[in-house]
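Record now logged underneath.
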Amino acid sequence: MARGAFYKVRVEMVERFGSDIAFLYAVLENASKVWKKDKDGYFTVWIKYLTDRTGWSKPRIIRVRKQLIDLGLLKFVAGKNQNIGGKYKLM
């Protein structure tokens, strides 16, 4: 995890969906505040960024991301390769 990083995790999300979902959402929410968004409100994030920030494995990030999508909390467009990250939109 990034040294000295703080994320605002919503207690109601932890209670309703669990800590993994709430934490990944908080990391994405933080990124959405500082990274440029396209005209549709999507911002690009690389898996490497998420593994660095969360300390999680790639499969765990993908699993929790899918849960966020299934819950309607996130929209995701896959990247084309390792040089073009996926696009995320928080709901």
About this structure: The beta strands are 43-45, 74-77, 86-90. The first strand starts at residue 43 and ends at 45.
